[in-house]
Fold these 3 entries.
Entry 1:
Amino acid sequence: DTAVSQTPKYLVTQMGNDKSIKCEQNLGHDTMYWYKQDSKKFLKIMFSYNNKELIINETVPNRFSPKSPDKAHLNLHINSLELGDSAVYFCASSQAYLRGPSTDTQYFGPGTRLTVL
Amino acid sequence: AQSVTQPDIHITVSEGASLELRCNYSYGATPYLFWYVQSPGQGLQLLLKYFSGDTLVQGIKGFEAEFKRSQSSFNLRKPSVHWSDAAEYFCAVGARRGGATNKLIFGTGTLLAVQP
């Protein structure tokens, strides 16, 4: 059973298009995250949600809009895609927020490689 | 500012040799520290973590790491490397607000190559 899953695994699209990436976790975790890994492998937080509530929006352009229909899902919608959006996007989850360090470990999905042409 | 530095971009070791990957952090409070591994085309797998207590922590796949507060370091070690350990290794610090980790700050990674 996959703990954190993402779809699609690969996404190739043209500049200007709108696309979505989906993330689901079956770990019963309360908190979910989106990270972006650029071409140099650098990983940076984009968003985090706790129980469907936005906790972090890390100065991400407003073309990126996360949506959490329930605490097991966190989707990422990107409008008007640009060349610089090409990256690998990782979803992650952790057990609980504000309950101490033992619940803070983040588990990552397999990533979605987005290529904008 | 909070940051993580991995000084070695690329390391090559021979199979069976020992390994140490360096990680230095900058964080104002007691850090929560993590090492993740990323195999080619894969996601990130947690190797080990440090929150408090014993400064030598054991992880999966025979890895261990030692937290040294005086040196602001959390170096990853393995006594005998296997070819399957070839991957990218990321050190991270858990940045906290209100007592909870709300994001991970990653280093730039160290790419490990293993020679037969």
Note: The first strand of chain A starts at residue 4 and ends at 7.
Entry 2:
Amino acid sequence: LAKTTQPISMDSYEGQEVNITCSHNNIATNDYITWYQQFPSQGPRFIIQGYKTKVTNEVASLFIPADRKSSTLSLPRVSLSDTAVYYCLVGASFSGGYNKLIFGAGTRLAVHP
Amino acid sequence: KAGVTQTPRYLIKTRGQQVTLSCSPISGHRSVSWYQQTPGQGLQFLFEYFSETQRNKGNFPGRFSGRQFSNSRSEMNVSTLELGDSALYLCASDPGQGNNEQFFGPGTRLTVL
């Protein structure tokens, strides 16, 4: 499974757009890129998943360049409630359908008033 | 649909004891995965069960075991508890066909004294 590298922490202010970039140089052809969000003392929550180009849902956008060696999670107009740890995972398409999420250290996002 | 539930939410044990944690997946989900989260090691995969069979396992000692019942409910057991087993234990479920969003429960906070 490909290893991911993302910033340890980021700070932002309410109403700003936040972009968190994740590097995954060894991503495999059949790997997907998935982002999870975790609040303190809660389980992670799926945000978005993509394979290439751009994916958008009601919560975020995911930008993936053609070489797929990195990806950027974009959170539009963040609020205080977006303060959480964000995890980038690669390899969510598991061979044989086996499910095993490999979490890195994540990015701790702090949104300030 | 009801979410993933875990019981108990909090547990205090002493070294050498054993503990059993329970997880009820979302209705219709056949895959249940377990994770351990500690401040030092982050989120680590323990094992995954699908149709009452363990089909993937992380790098944890044999003291950590689990099982899944015919209704997809799962239990994990930790024997001969050590101080380092203090952690948030998270359970996640999904339909089980691979490349699926995993839905996490709130976790069980285990403290070993």
Note: Chain B touches chain A through 31 residues (CB under 8 Å).
Entry 3:
Amino acid sequence: DADVTQTPRNRITKTGKRIMLECSQTKGHDRMYWYRQDPGLGLRLIYYSFDVKDINKGEISDGYSVSRQAQAKFSLSLESAIPNQTALYFCATGQGTDTQYFGPGTRLTVL
Amino acid sequence: KQEVTQIPAALSVPEGENLVLNCSFTDSAIYNLQWFRQDPGKGLTSLLLIQSSQREQTSGRLNASLDKSSGRSTLYIAASQPGDSATYLCAVRTGANSKLTFGKGITLSVRP
């Protein structure tokens, strides 16, 4: 089984809908991250969490919220999706400052 | 603000060639630097992690070097193979509790 899993893998939704992307890890890492990747813009950090009670905004947090339900679970919500949130979303985990391990990604399309 | 640049954006080489991928960063006070590989539509896979006190790291046919004073890192791939075709990203961590700043990546194509 994969160490970092993301659900769903693909999602098409409409403008204004609420969407939740989920991430689970089996590596026992303390830190979890949500990124989005857009062509020409690279990877940008949305939110990150250093432990269950520590949530921090990244560089592009507007329009997003997160929940760290347990050490192993970190979900990303779009309260009211808009077309420019169409992107590839990645969850990643890490222990301290060691390397980050990425999930397979969720391809989100907002119509 | 840390900025990471990878040039060129794309590179095509014949199989068997040794090649170097470049990464430059603007703030030399880094904590560590990582190289990742990304296959199309997939997640990132860590290749090498270099701490700020190190000059290089090696894994198989891959060798990454770090020169903090000049704000540069290189990823050397020996005897390239078609299976090496992917996008290679470097990422810099400025402090222990800071985020990773990613370059936009270099898309490598190795021709059989």
Note: The first strand of chain A starts at residue 4 and ends at 7.
